[in-house]
Amino acid sequence: MDQGSGSQYSHPRGEEGRKIMESMNEHHLPLTEWALSRLEGVEPGGVLDVGCGGGLALSLAAQRWPKASLYGADVSASALEFCFERNRELVNSGRMELVQAPAGSLPYRSGSFDLVISVESYFFWEDLAAGIAELGRVTAPGGTLMIVSEAYPHPDFDDRNKENSRLHGFTLVDPEGIADLIAIEGFETEVHLVEEMNWMAVIGDRMGGV
Protein backbone atom coordinates (compact mmCIF):
# COMPACT_ATOMS: atom_id res chain seq x y z
CA MET A 1 0.00 0.00 0.00
CA ASP A 2 1.23 3.49 -0.48
CA GLN A 3 -0.41 6.80 -1.17
CA GLY A 4 -3.82 8.25 -0.48
CA SER A 5 -5.58 9.47 2.64
CA GLY A 6 -9.09 8.05 2.25
CA SER A 7 -9.18 4.27 1.92
CA GLN A 8 -7.96 2.08 4.76
CA TYR A 9 -6.42 -0.06 2.03
CA SER A 10 -4.27 2.77 0.69
CA HIS A 11 -3.47 4.39 4.04
CA PRO A 12 -4.35 2.07 6.95
CA ARG A 13 -4.98 3.67 10.32
CA GLY A 14 -5.93 2.53 13.79
CA GLU A 15 -7.43 -0.81 14.78
CA GLU A 16 -9.41 -1.17 11.54
CA GLY A 17 -6.22 -0.65 9.55
CA ARG A 18 -4.43 -3.34 11.59
CA LYS A 19 -7.21 -5.82 10.92
CA ILE A 20 -7.03 -5.04 7.20
CA MET A 21 -3.25 -5.54 7.15
CA GLU A 22 -3.60 -8.87 8.97
CA SER A 23 -6.19 -9.95 6.41
CA MET A 24 -4.10 -8.77 3.46
CA ASN A 25 -0.99 -10.56 4.69
CA GLU A 26 -2.97 -13.80 4.77
CA HIS A 27 -4.81 -13.16 1.51
CA HIS A 28 -1.74 -12.06 -0.45
CA LEU A 29 0.54 -14.91 0.63
CA PRO A 30 -0.02 -17.14 -2.46
CA LEU A 31 0.29 -14.15 -4.82
CA THR A 32 3.52 -12.94 -3.22
CA GLU A 33 5.09 -16.40 -3.11
CA TRP A 34 4.25 -16.86 -6.80
CA ALA A 35 5.65 -13.46 -7.73
CA LEU A 36 8.94 -13.99 -5.90
CA SER A 37 9.27 -17.40 -7.56
CA ARG A 38 9.37 -15.56 -10.93
CA LEU A 39 12.75 -14.14 -9.85
CA GLU A 40 14.67 -17.36 -10.38
CA GLY A 41 18.36 -16.62 -10.68
CA VAL A 42 18.10 -13.23 -8.96
CA GLU A 43 20.45 -13.01 -5.95
CA PRO A 44 20.19 -9.48 -4.57
CA GLY A 45 22.45 -7.96 -1.98
CA GLY A 46 19.81 -5.35 -1.17
CA VAL A 47 16.01 -5.55 -1.54
CA LEU A 48 13.61 -2.61 -1.34
CA ASP A 49 9.84 -3.14 -0.99
CA VAL A 50 7.92 0.03 -1.89
CA GLY A 51 4.50 0.13 -0.25
CA CYS A 52 5.67 -2.58 2.15
CA GLY A 53 2.37 -2.57 4.07
CA GLY A 54 2.16 -5.34 6.65
CA GLY A 55 5.62 -6.68 5.82
CA LEU A 56 4.67 -9.94 4.13
CA ALA A 57 6.89 -9.53 1.06
CA LEU A 58 9.85 -8.47 3.18
CA SER A 59 9.53 -11.49 5.47
CA LEU A 60 9.34 -13.81 2.45
CA ALA A 61 12.32 -12.05 0.86
CA ALA A 62 14.28 -12.57 4.08
CA GLN A 63 13.67 -16.30 3.80
CA ARG A 64 14.39 -16.48 0.07
CA TRP A 65 17.58 -14.41 0.21
CA PRO A 66 19.06 -14.97 3.69
CA LYS A 67 22.14 -12.81 2.98
CA ALA A 68 20.27 -9.80 1.56
CA SER A 69 19.80 -6.50 3.35
CA LEU A 70 16.13 -5.53 3.44
CA TYR A 71 14.44 -2.14 3.20
CA GLY A 72 10.78 -1.15 3.33
CA ALA A 73 9.07 2.14 2.46
CA ASP A 74 5.44 3.02 3.03
CA VAL A 75 3.51 6.27 3.37
CA SER A 76 1.49 4.90 6.28
CA ALA A 77 3.00 5.09 9.77
CA SER A 78 0.52 2.45 10.94
CA ALA A 79 1.62 0.08 8.20
CA LEU A 80 5.25 0.56 9.18
CA GLU A 81 4.43 -0.20 12.82
CA PHE A 82 2.71 -3.42 11.75
CA CYS A 83 5.61 -4.27 9.42
CA PHE A 84 8.05 -3.73 12.28
CA GLU A 85 6.06 -6.02 14.58
CA ARG A 86 6.03 -8.76 11.95
CA ASN A 87 9.77 -8.39 11.29
CA ARG A 88 10.99 -7.23 14.70
CA GLU A 89 14.00 -9.55 14.83
CA LEU A 90 15.17 -8.51 11.37
CA VAL A 91 14.88 -4.81 12.22
CA ASN A 92 16.53 -5.15 15.62
CA SER A 93 19.40 -7.13 14.12
CA GLY A 94 20.07 -4.33 11.64
CA ARG A 95 19.24 -6.46 8.62
CA MET A 96 16.01 -4.54 7.84
CA GLU A 97 15.34 -0.79 7.77
CA LEU A 98 11.93 0.86 7.41
CA VAL A 99 11.16 4.44 6.34
CA GLN A 100 8.00 6.47 5.86
CA ALA A 101 7.98 7.69 2.26
CA PRO A 102 5.73 7.66 -0.82
CA ALA A 103 6.66 5.84 -4.00
CA GLY A 104 7.31 9.07 -5.84
CA SER A 105 9.90 10.39 -3.37
CA LEU A 106 12.21 7.73 -1.97
CA PRO A 107 15.03 8.79 0.39
CA TYR A 108 17.71 6.67 -1.27
CA ARG A 109 20.61 7.34 -3.57
CA SER A 110 20.30 6.37 -7.22
CA GLY A 111 21.24 2.77 -7.92
CA SER A 112 21.00 1.68 -4.28
CA PHE A 113 19.23 -1.67 -4.67
CA ASP A 114 19.71 -4.85 -6.68
CA LEU A 115 16.01 -5.67 -6.39
CA VAL A 116 13.09 -3.26 -6.03
CA ILE A 117 9.60 -4.72 -5.63
CA SER A 118 6.12 -3.35 -5.08
CA VAL A 119 3.23 -5.67 -4.27
CA GLU A 120 -0.40 -4.54 -4.33
CA SER A 121 0.55 -0.86 -4.21
CA TYR A 122 1.00 0.79 -7.61
CA PHE A 123 -2.72 1.42 -8.12
CA PHE A 124 -2.82 3.81 -5.15
CA TRP A 125 0.10 5.99 -6.29
CA GLU A 126 -0.73 9.58 -7.11
CA ASP A 127 1.38 9.47 -10.30
CA LEU A 128 2.15 6.02 -11.69
CA ALA A 129 4.77 7.15 -14.20
CA ALA A 130 6.58 9.23 -11.58
CA GLY A 131 6.46 6.35 -9.11
CA ILE A 132 7.90 3.86 -11.58
CA ALA A 133 10.57 6.39 -12.55
CA GLU A 134 11.54 6.74 -8.89
CA LEU A 135 11.67 2.96 -8.39
CA GLY A 136 13.79 2.77 -11.50
CA ARG A 137 16.10 5.49 -10.21
CA VAL A 138 17.00 3.53 -7.08
CA THR A 139 17.50 0.25 -8.97
CA ALA A 140 21.16 -0.54 -9.56
CA PRO A 141 22.72 -1.27 -12.96
CA GLY A 142 22.13 -4.98 -13.52
CA GLY A 143 19.28 -4.88 -11.02
CA THR A 144 15.64 -5.94 -11.20
CA LEU A 145 12.35 -4.10 -10.70
CA MET A 146 9.05 -5.94 -10.19
CA ILE A 147 5.46 -4.66 -9.91
CA VAL A 148 2.91 -7.19 -8.63
CA SER A 149 -0.88 -7.11 -8.43
CA GLU A 150 -3.65 -9.61 -7.81
CA ALA A 151 -5.81 -7.79 -10.38
CA TYR A 152 -5.46 -6.26 -13.83
CA PRO A 153 -8.03 -5.24 -16.45
CA HIS A 154 -9.57 -8.44 -17.84
CA PRO A 155 -13.12 -9.05 -19.09
CA ASP A 156 -13.59 -12.14 -16.92
CA PHE A 157 -12.99 -10.06 -13.77
CA ASP A 158 -14.42 -6.75 -14.94
CA ASP A 159 -17.35 -6.54 -12.51
CA ARG A 160 -15.26 -7.50 -9.49
CA ASN A 161 -12.42 -5.16 -10.38
CA LYS A 162 -14.73 -2.20 -11.02
CA GLU A 163 -16.49 -2.73 -7.70
CA ASN A 164 -13.21 -2.98 -5.78
CA SER A 165 -11.94 0.11 -7.55
CA ARG A 166 -15.07 2.00 -6.52
CA LEU A 167 -14.85 0.82 -2.92
CA HIS A 168 -11.14 1.35 -2.37
CA GLY A 169 -10.25 4.13 -4.79
CA PHE A 170 -7.63 2.44 -6.94
CA THR A 171 -6.98 2.49 -10.67
CA LEU A 172 -5.85 -0.67 -12.46
CA VAL A 173 -3.52 -0.48 -15.46
CA ASP A 174 -2.92 -3.10 -18.16
CA PRO A 175 0.27 -5.12 -17.55
CA GLU A 176 1.56 -3.99 -20.94
CA GLY A 177 1.07 -0.36 -19.91
CA ILE A 178 3.11 -0.91 -16.76
CA ALA A 179 5.77 -2.73 -18.79
CA ASP A 180 5.98 0.23 -21.16
CA LEU A 181 6.55 2.63 -18.26
CA ILE A 182 9.27 0.38 -16.82
CA ALA A 183 10.92 0.08 -20.25
CA ILE A 184 11.13 3.87 -20.50
CA GLU A 185 13.41 3.79 -17.45
CA GLY A 186 15.95 1.57 -19.22
CA PHE A 187 14.74 -1.94 -18.41
CA GLU A 188 14.10 -5.01 -20.50
CA THR A 189 10.64 -6.17 -19.44
CA GLU A 190 8.61 -9.34 -19.25
CA VAL A 191 5.03 -9.90 -18.13
CA HIS A 192 3.93 -12.91 -16.11
CA LEU A 193 0.22 -13.68 -15.70
CA VAL A 194 -1.96 -16.24 -13.98
CA GLU A 195 -5.07 -15.49 -15.99
CA GLU A 196 -7.45 -17.72 -14.04
CA MET A 197 -6.51 -15.83 -10.85
CA ASN A 198 -6.14 -12.38 -12.50
CA TRP A 199 -2.59 -12.13 -11.11
CA MET A 200 0.23 -10.21 -12.77
CA ALA A 201 3.93 -9.64 -12.19
CA VAL A 202 5.75 -7.21 -14.47
CA ILE A 203 9.53 -7.62 -14.25
CA GLY A 204 12.17 -5.27 -15.56
CA ASP A 205 15.86 -6.16 -15.79
CA ARG A 206 18.24 -3.22 -16.00
CA MET A 207 21.31 -3.85 -18.12
CA GLY A 208 24.64 -3.18 -16.46
CA GLY A 209 25.96 0.31 -17.07
CA VAL A 210 22.52 1.95 -17.48
Topology, element by element:
Blueprint: H1 14-27, H2 29-37, E1 46-50, H3 56-64, E2 69-74, H4 77-86, H5 88-92, E3 96-100, E4 113-119, H6 128-137, E5 139-149, H7 158-168, H8 175-184, E6 187-194, E7 199-206
Parallel strand pairs: 1-2, 1-4, 2-3, 4-5
Antiparallel strand pairs: 5-7, 6-7
Helix pairs in contact: 2-3
Query: What percentage of residues falls in helices of 4 or more residues?
Result: 25-40%
- What's the story with the biggest beta sheet? 7 strands, mixed
Query: Span between N and C termini?
Result: 29 Å
Which stretches are poorly predicted, pLDDT < 50 over at least 5 residues? 1-6
Question: What is the CATH homologous superfamily assignment?
Answer: Vaccinia Virus protein VP39
CATH architecture: 3-Layer(aba) Sandwich
Mean pLDDT: 91
Domain tally = 1
Question: Order of SSEs, N→C?
Answer: HHEHEHHEEHEHHEE
The neighbouring-strand order within the major sheet is: 3-2-1-4-5-7-6
